[in-house]
Design goal:
Rossmann fold, about 325 residues, single chain, five-stranded parallel beta sheet
Length: about 325
């Protein structure tokens, strides 16, 4: 059996497809599982095991489609389901199952605040696509994320300034309305004696440096732009807690024993994208500002608050967030 999984973006969405890989591999140990994504996520996809071959879209869509078509797949599981993936699979004689993104329901929620979304995590909805393979139920525990030996970080050697346990902080997000403002991070840091290690991309480095400079009494290590996604995952896996926006690193952290304290702005866990912990956890905590008539304003985010006040982040309770760290 030859199966293609498709998910082009983004970090969190791709990580949440890993249970689909595991479920197929468990049901069909001899199946050849391929995965199609963007070239920019090649390193991230090393975080899952069980893939026979990867296909990466870079420049030419036509050559990419020719590559996919030449593989002669028996089944295609389209976990992205947009115009491009439909173009990609058009004319390919395989049995195709597509993930239902529930876009109409999400639009009703963001536009009119009418929540008709099912109370089902997106991972469980991904797994429903496997019915095309005859997989009707999956005994799913938490997600798994593999960190190659070459990406494992020795914390004491790499960051000797850290003395004991630390809190990892994921400050980045693609959209600004999903990011905790730097001033709010500072409030949180000042409410606890914890040590902090900040992870993020090169675009987050400036804010990381600002936090270090404006909190001189704290031990804060800024690694933004210095670590690969796999090295950042290693750092998070060894942390006492992860403080995070609604972003990809939150979903990676859910694969480990790290406590997750997630802070939600314009988005909401009701979209089915909370940390995936099928068996639950006593220490994870979700923070969001309830009672705002403007929230959620988008299923993904904006670069500026449409209402200009950004209350969903500015009104977050820094003391309560810090207390979660202290109690763990």
């Amino acid at each position: 059996m030859k199966i293609l999984l498709i998910r082009f973006s983004s970090i969190g969405d791709i990580v949440l497809t890993f249970p689909v890989v595991h479920a197929i591999r468990k049901a069909f140990p001899e199946a050849k599982i391929h995965f199609a994504s963007k070239k920019s996520f090649e390193t991230l996809l090393l975080g899952t095991k069980g893939i026979h071959k990867f296909h990466f879209l870079s420049d030419s869509f036509s050559s990419f489609k020719s590559e996919i078509k030449s593989e002669e797949f028996d089944y295609i599981i389209d976990l992205h389901n947009n115009l491009r993936t439909r173009r990609l699979t058009l004319g390919i004689p395989a049995k195709i199952a597509r993930f239902d993104k529930l876009n109409l329901r999400k639009w009703l929620f963001t536009k009119f605040k009418f929540n008709a979304l099912p109370n089902v995590h997106v991972v469980d909805r991904y797994l429903e696509t496997l019915k095309v393979l005859g997989i009707n139920s999956v005994d799913q525990t938490r997600n798994q994320f593999h960190i190659p030996t070459s990406s494992n970080i020795n914390i004491l050697e790499r960051f000797p300034m850290l003395n004991g346990s630390y809190v990892a902080v994921a400050i980045g997000a693609q959209f600004k309305t999903k990011r905790v403002p730097k001033e709010k991070w500072l409030e949180i840091f000042r409410e606890t004696d914890s040590q902090f290690l900040i992870v993020g991309g090169e675009m987050d480095r400036e804010i990381g440096d600002w936090l270090v400079d404006n909190c001189p009494s704290k031990i804060i290590v800024n690694t933004c732009g210095e670590l690969t996604i796999l090295e950042s995952a290693s750092v998070v896996s060894q942390a006492k807690s992860l403080l995070t926006n609604d972003t990809g690193m939150m979903h990676i952290a859910a694969c480990f024993d790290t406590q997750i304290i997630s802070i939600w702005g314009n988005t909401t866990p009701d979209f089915g994208m909370s940390p995936y912990r099928p068996q639950g956890t006593k220490t994870d905590k979700i923070f969001q500002v309830d009672g705002l008539s403007c929230r959620p304003c988008s299923k993904i985010g904006h670069q500026e608050c449409p209402k200009k006040h950004f209350r969903c982040m500015h009104e977050q309770d820094a003391k309560a967030i810090a207390q979660c760290i202290v109690k763990n």
